[in-house]
Amino acid sequence: MRIFQLTFFFSIMFALLPSTWASDIKQGEHIFKSICIHCHGMGGEQKFAPDLTGIGTRRDVAWLNAWLKNPSEVLKHDRYAQALLGKNKYGIHMPQIPDMQDDEKRANVIAYLLTEF
Ligand code: HEC
């Protein structure tokens, strides 16, 4: 009996997983398009910040997570981030964003960046 319950549980879980993942990416997209897009633009367009095309090939999840949570903290010790400032021609810097203090929202934006850019 127990094995049937377990099988049932896992089949429900696997049925739900892809849709949960998709809705997380949707929330990430929503956040990106309401906050980040004002500086970053999309599809090669640059506004006041670097184009994020291919960001998933340049940076890993741990870096993105730390950067989105607190850019100035990462700048203290990370050479890549310091080099970004050297190349900055926009006159403004990546701010610490209140919405990015929320672990779930941050994870969803990262999921969006890694799948769509
Ligand atoms: C006020 C403008 C502004 C906003 C809003 C903003 N950024 Fe940035 N971002 C920057 C700037 C400028 C840089 C380049 C580093 C610097 O000078 O601070 C940057 C750098 C980055 C980088 C590193 C880029 C690279 O090429 O390695 C990532 C990733 C990033 N931002 C993601 C985001 C996300 C996601 C959001 C929304 C949650 C966001 N940014 C909102 C201005 C902004």
Give structural notes.
- The protein is 70% helix and 0% strand.
- The mean pLDDT is 87.
- The chain has one domain: Cytochrome c-like domain (Cytochrome Bc1 Complex, Chain D, domain 2).
- With 117 residues, the protein is mainly alpha-helical.
- It has 6 helices and no strands.
- Heme C is lined by residues 35-36, 38-40, 48-50, 52, 55, 58-59, 64, 67-68, 71, 84-85, 88, 90, 92-95, 97, 100, 109.
Topology overview:
Blueprint: H1 2-40, H2 55-58, H3 61-69, H4 71-77, H5 79-87, H6 103-116
Helix pairs in contact: 1-6, 3-4, 4-5
The structure holds heme C.
Question: SSE string, helix = H, strand = E?
Answer: HHHHHH
Instruction: Give me the secondary-structure category.
Output: mainly alpha
Write the CATH homologous superfamily: Cytochrome c-like domain
For the report, how would you describe the main beta sheet? none
> How many beta strands in the DSSP annotation?
0
User: What integer is the average pLDDT?
Assistant: 87
How far apart lie the N and C ends? 46 Å
The gyration radius over C-alpha positions equals: 18 Å
Domains (count):
1
Shape: elongated
* Percent strand: under 5%
Distinct small molecules bound, one entry per kind: heme C
Helix content: over 70%
Count of discrete alpha- or pi-helical segments spanning 4 or more residues: 6
Annotated CATH topology:
Cytochrome Bc1 Complex, Chain D, domain 2
Q: Which CATH class is shown? A: Mainly Alpha
Low-confidence stretches: none
